[in-house]
Amino acid sequence: MRISIAVASKHGSTAEIAAAVGEELAASGHDVSVHDMATASVLELDESGAIILGSAIYYGHWLLPAEVFTEDLSLRLDGRPVWMFSSGPIGAPAQPDPTTVDVEDQLVLTQPREHKVFAGRLERARLHRGERAVATALRSPEGDFRDWEEIRGWARGIARALDDVHSATA
Ligand SMILES: Cc1cc2nc3c(=O)[nH]c(=O)nc-3n(C[C@H](O)[C@H](O)[C@H](O)COP(=O)(O)O)c2cc1C
């Protein structure tokens, strides 16, 4: 099946999650394309049988390009299955609590099969000056907390769910 992954990332770590999800789905035999929501058109996803949307979390929300893209896409979904992921919480245990991300609008618009929150990466050297000030004020831990086995396992679960859909309709 053709699967599109559309992602919004400011400092690259969420884009790398999208790439890993894409690798797993491709390994399961799917035809996968990854789109940057900051530059892609929703029309590029028209031929996809399933769609995965993901964004980094900043200040409790998805990045603006992800919010705009998702709203536009929602008019063209036509019942196609959607999965969503967010990436942000930092540290061990990861903070803030993954449930604090406000993606209510995106959930209502796309009715995803699942919304998964993955831990993120925060490296001060990559941040802009204002972001660094916020990270310092919040005493955010620094590091790469992404759990690749969790991420790849989630992608394999999507592949299995799509197989089930396919065999039920075959
Ligand atoms: C200024 C700033 C604000 C952030 N706000 C949140 C937040 O509200 N919730 C959260 O879970 N993570 C937050 N994060 C952590 C980022 O989501 C995390 O670093 C993520 O992995 C960045 O993804 P990217 O590399 O794709 O941009 C924030 C990070 C920065 C620098």
Automatic annotation (TrEMBL):
UniProt-listed Gene3D superfamilies: 3.40.50.360
Domain of life: Bacteria
MF (Gene Ontology): FMN binding
Xref: Pfam families: Flavodoxin_5
Domain Flavodoxin-like: 3-159
Name of the protein: Menaquinone-dependent protoporphyrinogen oxidase
Source organism (scientific name): Sanguibacter antarcticus
